[in-house]
């Protein structure tokens, strides 16, 4: 929802600024504001309308107590989020050491058992991966529900768009795979059954002696700027080169990075749990307002 750049000033002699901030950002107040907003695709609310919406406030001391409680949870969320970012930076640093930089045939760091294994060989992505069209695996209905079993995927940031109860056309063989957006070149590593949203998604499978997780991570190092709106896998990406070691070293690197991914996922889940905890707190600490 858009507010046309409205800035609200709080009389801090009467109200706790953080209490008011938390209240107007609560789900129930935002639902109330949305009901009063205009616009079909992008909801907007003007200052005159916003000023008429009511909030319920306790004494200043109670406001401050509630604000202190919520801000302490926010501090926990921020601290936990920083842990996630540090782990992501750690993985980024690992990848810089575990993969050869441009112009080199070996990485900066090799596991002891592979230090005499020779140079990495250059291969086209198309020599490492087979692709299949997604037509059989495209979801038919977009009526998603979190209680359903099968995730519907995109290769973009959102990744899991929702869950479907469709049982036909679920991709569950030959896992793990890479899903690749043919237009944006975004990619995701997938090791669970799924359906896809769009025909733009290519499903990439590893060929013999190729570790698909290793190739996925190598693809993240490819610097490529998307230009015109065109399909990229067959004409461009499949012809790009990466360097690969022997299968055992591929597996070792993939396992190392997967262990970091698991740490990132575990810490990210803690962030989500803290956010859910805060949401539950707010539902108990604030009375629900209704429109007049």
From TrEMBL:
InterPro entries: Restrct_endonuc_typeI_TRD, Restrct_endonuc_typeI_TRD_sf, Type-I_RS_S_subunit. GO terms for biological process: DNA restriction-modification system. It comes from the Bacteria. The keyword DNA-binding applies. Transmembrane segments: none annotated. GO terms for molecular function: DNA binding. Residues 19-84, 119-271 form the Type I restriction modification DNA specificity domain. The keyword Nucleotidyltransferase does not apply. Keywords: DNA-binding, Restriction system. Belongs to the type-I restriction system S methylase family. PANTHER family: TYPE I RESTRICTION ENZYME MJAVIII SPECIFICITY SUBUNIT, TYPE-1 RESTRICTION ENZYME ECOKI SPECIFICITY PROTEIN. This is Type I restriction modification DNA specificity domain-containing protein. It comes from Francisella hispaniensis FSC454.
């Amino acid at each position: 929802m858009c507010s046309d750049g409205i800035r609200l000033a709080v009389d801090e002699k009467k109200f706790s600024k953080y209490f008011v901030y938390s209240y107007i950002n609560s789900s129930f107040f935002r639902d109330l504001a949305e009901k009063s907003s205009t616009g079909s695709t992008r909801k907007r609310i003007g200052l005159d309308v916003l000023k008429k919406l009511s909030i319920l406030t306790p004494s200043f001391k109670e406001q401050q107590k509630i604000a202190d409680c919520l801000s302490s949870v926010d501090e926990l969320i921020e601290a936990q989020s920083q842990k996630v970012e540090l782990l992501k930076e750690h993985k980024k640093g690992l990848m810089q050491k575990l993969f050869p930089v441009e112009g080199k045939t070996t990485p900066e760091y090799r596991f002891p058992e592979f230090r005499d294994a020779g140079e990495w060989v250059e291969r086209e992505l198309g020599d490492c991966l087979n692709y299949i069209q997604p037509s059989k695996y495209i979801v038919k209905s977009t009526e998603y529900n979190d209680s359903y079993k099968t995730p519907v995927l995109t290769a973009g940031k959102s990744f899991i768009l929702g869950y479907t109860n469709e049982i036909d056309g679920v991709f569950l063989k030959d896992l793990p795979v890479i899903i690749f957006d043919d237009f944006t070149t975004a990619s995701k590593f997938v090791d669970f059954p799924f359906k896809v949203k769009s025909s733009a998604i290519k499903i990439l499978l590893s060929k013999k002696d190729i570790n698909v997780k290793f190739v996925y991570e190598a693809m993240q190092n490819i610097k490529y700027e998307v230009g015109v709106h065109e399909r990229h896998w067959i004409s461009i990406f499949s012809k790009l080169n990466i360097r690969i070691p022997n299968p055992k070293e591929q597996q070792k690197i993939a396992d190392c990075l997967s262990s970091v991914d698991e740490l990132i996922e575990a810490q990210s889940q803690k962030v989500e749990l803290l956010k859910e905890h805060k949401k539950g707190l707010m539902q108990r600490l604030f009375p629900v307002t209704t429109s007049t």
